[in-house]
Design brief:
Helix content: 25-40%
Radius of gyration: 20 Å
Order of helices and strands: HEHEHEHEHEHEHEHEHEHEH
Shape: elongated
Number of helices: 11
Number of strands: 10
Distance between the termini: 54 Å
Length: 258
C-alpha cells in the first residue's frame, strides 16, 4: 500500500467502512509519506470501540458528540473526530427514488398510511430477544389489521434475512393476502432515508441508524428498543418520545401519528 500511494501520488485515502483490519494498514502506509487516512462511522453503535478498533484512521466522521466521547475514552488514537450527524455513501444509486416500487405493491386506490420497519437481529446477549421481537411484530400486525388503509413494508437487515418464524403466521398471511404487508428485498444498496422518503412513518427495531437517518432528515420515525439494560445515551433523552421499550407503548405512539 505504501508503494501504491507513492506511485499514484495519493496523500488522502478515504475508507468507506467501519470494521476492517486494513484500516490500520492504510494508516501505517500513509504515515510513511505524511499522508492522511479518513474513515466514516456507518451505524450508531452503543459500543463504539467495536466499530473503530484501537488503531483507526487519522480522521473519523462520527454521528454525534457522545460517540466522539466514547471513542476517546476507549483509547482510540485518531487525530480528529468530525461530527457530521449523518452517515453517507458514494454510490449514485443510493439516492434513487423508490416511489414507483412502493406504488407498484399497493393494490388499493385509496389513500394509504405507509409504514416501513427497519428490521434487525435478535437473540441471546443482544438488546432484543426473539420473544421480544415476536411480541413487537405481533402487536404491530394486529394493529394494522384493524386499520384497513395501513400498509406495512419490512426492510430486512440483510438481503433475504427476515425471519418469518418470529411472527404469528396466520395474521402475517392475512395482512399479506390483503396486499398490505410487503418484504422489501432486492432494492440494491440504497440509503435507508431513500426508503423513508416514500413512507409516512419509519420504525427502527432497536435504536436503529436506519431510522435515525429519517429523524435527522425531518421524517417521522420511532424506535422499539426493549434492551434498556444495554447502554445507549439516546435512551436518556428520548425515552417514551422517540424510543419505546414496550410493544404497547410504541403501538400507542404509532396510533397517535396515524
Amino acid at each position: 500500500w505504501s508503494l501504491f500511494f507513492t506511485k499514484h501520488n495519493i496523500d488522502i485515502w478515504f475508507t468507506p467502512m467501519e470494521q476492517s483490519n486494513d484500516i490500520a494498514i492504510y494508516r501505517a502506509a500513509m504515515e510513511k509519506k505524511n499522508g492522511v487516512t479518513i474513515q466514516c462511522q456507518r451505524s450508531v453503535y452503543y459500543s463504539p470501540a467495536l466499530s473503530y478498533g484501537f488503531n483507526p484512521a487519522h480522521i473519523n466522521f462520527t454521528w454525534s458528540d457522545f460517540q466522539k466521547t466514547h471513542l476517546l475514552e476507549n483509547g482510540n488514537n485518531s487525530l480528529s473526530y468530525l461530527i457530521v450527524g449523518h452517515s453517507f455513501g458514494a454510490s449514485p444509486n443510493w439516492t434513487r427514488n423508490i416511489d414507483n416500487i412502493v406504488s407498484s405493491k399497493i393494490n388499493s386506490q385509496k389513500k394509504t398510511f405507509k409504514v416501513v420497519i427497519f428490521d434487525n437481529i435478535c437473540g441471546n446477549n443482544l438488546p432484543m430477544t426473539k420473544k421480544q421481537m415476536k411480541s413487537f411484530y405481533d402487536k404491530l400486525i394486529e394493529w394494522a389489521l384493524k386499520n384497513e388503509n395501513v400498509v406495512l413494508f419490512i426492510k430486512a437487515k440483510k438481503k433475504e434475512s427476515f425471519t418469518h418464524e418470529l411472527i404469528t403466521m396466520h395474521n402475517f398471511h392475512k395482512l399479506e393476502s390483503e396486499g398490505r404487508l410487503h418484504i422489501l428485498n432486492n432494492l440494491g444498496y440504497i440509503l435507508p432515508i431513500t426508503v423513508s422518503n416514500s413512507m409516512d412513518l419509519s420504525i427502527g427495531v432497536n435504536i436503529s441508524s436506519a431510522a435515525l437517518e429519517a429523524n435527522i432528515a425531518g421524517k417521522r420515525s420511532l424506535h422499539y428498543y426493549p434492551g434498556i439494560d444495554f447502554y445507549h445515551p439516546l435512551t436518556k433523552k428520548c425515552l417514551n418520545s422517540l424510543i419505546f421499550t414496550e410493544p404497547e407503548t410504541i403501538i400507542s405512539a404509532v396510533e397517535d401519528i396515524y
